[in-house]
Amino acid sequence: MICAGSRLGEDVQQLMREGGEGEVSGIYSTSFYLRFPGNQLLLFCRRDMGGIPFAAGLGPEEIEALKDRMFIGMPVRAEKDGFVFGKGEAAVTFMTPITSQRKPDTPRACTPDYGRWLEAGKLLREIVSVAGTGDGAFFGAPFCTYAAPVVRELIANAADPDREAVEQCVSKLLGLGIGLTPSGDDFLSGFCYGVLRMEGQGGRFGGYLRDSILHLCGQKTGEISAAYLRASAGGKDFQLMETVMEAVEGKGDLREALAKLCAVGGSSGKEMGLGLYLGIGAYIRGR
Predict the structure, then answer these.
(1) What pLDDT is attached to residue 261?
(2) What is the average per-residue pLDDT within 173-188?
(3) Where along the chain do its domains lie?
């Protein structure tokens, strides 16, 4: 049995409160996924990936110890203090207190600082360049070149939203790219998070964007990427993106917040960062 201090997302806490039986659905180099009824996915990953609604963050040694004892399809049971794998071959108990109930969904409209938003664009270019990837691996990436007309059309809809046009743009971006979370999906996760965070839950553009993603993501991309998209479109908090939003409001170090987000994965954090930046911009344009 592994006893772990952890970052526990709200979906993980809810499942532990309610209990349930599932299975191991994916094992990767630094993470693994569990699937529960209703195609609900839970991610076990490194703590430094930040707070993800459907994730439990562990230390690298703890992840490796669990991976060594599991296999695809292995039964898993959620309990009030952790998870039990198989017939007890492995278990993880969390020392993090579980709250008695899920916090209610409330509008979380953000007040943008236009100057800080402009600074964010400059810092994104600088951070990616400093990381040694150069602008060509981010703003000039093949994804950005292909997607640029679609993104421009999507942003243009912010001022006078058209449901069908928004859905068409979302459809073209979903699943665009390679990997567990394709570039188009990472971009949309950040873009949608930014728009909803600026508008709150009552805006028309954000509503069309949210509805389109929730309607199409199960058909247009893989289940892991769809889990990220559903959480973002559902208005759930992603710690690293939330920290950037707060910094844009003037409540934190903008450079540090963007650097941490951009460091996630090979390119996922950078594409989320670009989406977040342009999502804020779409809101500013639409006001």
Answers:
(1) 93
(2) 92
(3) 2-94, 114-286
Find tokens 């998070």 and name the residue. Answer: 193
Distance CA 186, CA 14 (A): 25
Residue 180 or 25, more confident = 25
Residue-wise pLDDT for 27-52, tens only, equals: 998 899 999 998 899 999 988 777 89
Spacing of C-alpha 191 from chain mean position: 11
**Taking the model in full, what pTM does it have?**
0.87
Q: Apex CA 46: angle with CA 42 and CA 48, to 5°?
A: 120
Q: Note the pLDDT of residue 114.
A: 83
Contacts by 136-143, CB closer than 8 A, 24 or more apart: 137/267, 137/270, 138/267, 138/270, 138/274, 139/274, 141/183, 141/267, 143/176, 143/177, 143/183, 143/184, 143/187, 143/271
Distances (CA, A) of 272 to 43, 55, 103, 258: 18, 17, 25, 10
d(CA 135, CA 139): 6
| Vertex 52 angle, CA 51 and 55, to 5° | 105
